[in-house]
Amino acid sequence: MFALCFYTRTANQFCLISLLLFDQNISFRIKKNISDQFPDSIHISDLGKVIKTDKEIWEIAKLKNLAIVTFDVDFYDFSIVWGHPPKIILIRSQNQTTHFIAELLNSFQEHIKTFLMEQNTSCLEIIQQE
Prior knowledge:
It contains 5 helices and 6 strands; from the N terminus they run E-E-H-E-H-E-H-E-H-H-E. The chain has 130 residues and is α/β, with parallel strands linked by helices. It has one domain. A 6-stranded mixed sheet has the order 1-6-5-4-2-3, sandwiched between helices. The radius of gyration is 13 Å and the shape is globular.
């Protein structure tokens, strides 16, 4: 069972986000499993250069107007300090397969799409409940 949590922080600016950016802790293979619901989503490895830090990922997502999908709570902390964009989709689950994460995102697609269009919400947390 999963729960959704929305976190709000005043945005510095607002712009609709249509693409998801998967950080390096999520397999690049996820893209083919979510392409029907989230076409044109990208993995950080698609950007063609080695990204060394979470801050670099944050800056790229901000510049390109992407929402970061991650397991890394540091991005939530960034959103508290700096606001958004970028928006964060934080997946909080025990060790899961790429297929499972893709199914999870597909099952919450309407919530995710609504979140991406909301002006005042900076983080969507998907939490696995036992």
